[in-house]
Amino acid sequence: MGSSSSSHPLVPYGWDADWEAAFTPYAEQGLVPGRVVRVDRGQCDVVTPVGTVRADTEFVVPRDPMKVVCTGDWAAVDPEGGDPRYVRTLLPRRTAFVRSTSSKRSEGQILAANVDHAIVAVSLAVELDLDRVERFLALAWESGAQPVVVLTKADLVPDPSTLAHLVEDVGTTAPGVPVLTVSALLEEGLDVLLALLGSGTSVLLGQSGAGKSTLANALFGQDVMDVRAARDVDGKGRHTTTTRNLLALPGGGVLIDTPGLRGVGLWDAESGVGQVFSEIEELADRCRFQDCAHEAEPGCAVLAAADSGELPLRRLESYRKLKRENQWIVAKTDARLRAELRKDWKKRGAEGRAAMEAKRGRWR
Q1: Domain contains 305
Q2: What is the value of pTM for the model shown?
Q3: Does residue 263 fall inside a structural domain?
Q4: Which end of the chain has less Cβ packing within 10 Å, N or C?
């Protein structure tokens, strides 16, 4: 640890002065710094100043699933000589990309740690699913990373005007987010993406068949990921990437590739949802009531914008859906909030019944 952070062997993997300062107490204990490049059943591969080592994660098995060892983590590892070698602790994460699991236990699952850019790969081989793009972006914003949407397989849309229209559609869905088009087959658009990824750590996300592995191979200039053809009927692949892998890009920067995600559940992503739908949040500030639900309240600026066509109805419906889902997942882990939501739902139900009774009275 005597060398400066700028000449440290781990610099290509994201090591900097702040990580070195955070690691100082562990260096004094004789532990070795490293970045987790892959996790597999209680063990992980960690790149250290002297190469990649296999380490056991037994000492980092907390009850909280959010604190398990994850690809992208910076770790303190036993020095050479131990058999097995153990990850003794993790450095505090700067960011974490988290989704809810499909289990009924309402747990979060960390997909990648210490990420600067969250690349959402969207295939142009199939019809755009803007709702899903919004879902990915909400999680990306919530993680603390900068989202980037990459429209892959652009060679399948040869008409420039059609391609521009698709980019515009996604851009409207992703305020404040760069939207890039890439053809890995024709090697078009890669230079712009590589320039963006040249510093920091990026995680590559998307559904199976989105072309993530093909894109990763194009970015590395070699076949580092297994690739299989997507089904013609729906564009879905077959999970060619089965683990999350971290690799240093040849021109600088670090890329974490992930398996295709069939389910992308929100996990306490209120601020992320608000950022994706920033225009709705701005309209909401002009509503008559501070707790307006944008359903049927008088003086609702959001509903007025939807009625006038200023706000697309699809955006409003997607916003409502993600807000409800996020409230539900948070309520499942927060008893106090769950009670408040139940009380609010009862109140709204009573108001709705009263309104219907009033209407029936007028009809009689």
Answers
A1: yes
A2: 0.79
A3: no
A4: C
Burial class (CB in 10 A: 0-12, 13-18, 19+), 252: middle
Check the CA dihedral 265-270-272-275 and report its sign: positive
Same domain as 117, residue 253? yes
Pairing verdict, β 117-123 and 201-205: parallel
Kindly report the CATH number assigned to the domain that includes residue 242. Answer: 3.40.50.300
Amino acid at residue number 338: R
Amino acid at 242: T
Shared domain for 120 and 249, answered yes or no, is yes
Q: What is the DSSP letter of 148?
A: E
Q: Which two tokens stand for residue 210?
A: 């989105």
Please state the domain count of the chain: 3
Residue 37, token pair as written in the block: 């490049």
Task: Answer yes or no: do 154 and 277 share one domain.
Answer: no
The residue segments making up the domain with residue 175 are: 96-257
At 115 the three-state DSSP class reads coil
Q: What is the pLDDT of residues 27-62, one digit of tens each?
A: 999 999 999 999 988 899 999 999 999 999 988 776
List strands edge to edge, sheet with 201-205: 179-181, 146-152, 117-123, 201-205, 254-257, 245-248
Task: Say yes or no: 144 and 228 in one domain.
Answer: yes
Task: Read off the pLDDT of residues 196-247 as tens digits, 9 standing for 90 and up.
Answer: 999 899 999 888 778 888 899 999 887 665 544 444 444 444 444 456 799 9
Sign (positive/negative) of CA torsion 215, 220, 223, 224?
negative
* 193 and 251 belong to one structural domain: yes
